[in-house]
Amino acid sequence: MDELRVFKCDNGHVLGVVQRSGKGLRSLLLYRYAINYEADQGAIPDVDVLAIVDSAIEIRCSVCECKRAWVPGEDELERIVSRQQRHRVEREGNNCSIMKMEGVTV
Ligand SMILES: [Zn+2]
Predict the structure, then answer these.
(1) How many domains are there within the chain?
(2) pLDDT of 16-34, one tens digit each?
(3) What is the tens place of the pLDDT at every residue in 72-95?
(4) Distance in Å, CA 17 to ligand 1 centroid
(5) What is the span of the domain harbouring residue 106?
(6) Looking at the structure, do residues 78 and 67 belong to the same domain, yes or no?
(7) What is the rounded distance in angstroms from the CA atom of residue 58 to the CA atom of residue 68?
(8) Is the same domain home to 16 and 51?
(9) How far is the centre of ligand 1, averaged over its atoms, from the C-alpha of 6 (Å)?
(10) Residue 60: beta bridge partners?
(11) How much is the pTM?
């Protein structure tokens, strides 16, 4: 099953979803209006797909009006970043458990 990834602006509003279109290429289902999940309290509003984008484009968020560049393949970049963040959390978690153990032995 193809997994979908959301494409967000810098403030976390969902601009669209990324879909694989074969041969490693990706395209973006660009929403007409960005979704602000925090304001909608997790409810998913009806989405209106404005366009399917498969080339580099600059997208303006309809919620906060910040701009974000879409380039095909950028979701790979996000996945690498999130993997690094996860590693950092795991390391911090280990440090915490070591500190707790030290606290117990003292
Ligand atoms: Zn935004």
Answers:
(1) 2
(2) 998 876 666 788 999 999 9
(3) 765 555 565 666 666 555 555 544
(4) 14
(5) 73-106
(6) no
(7) 6
(8) yes
(9) 13
(10) 67
(11) 0.60
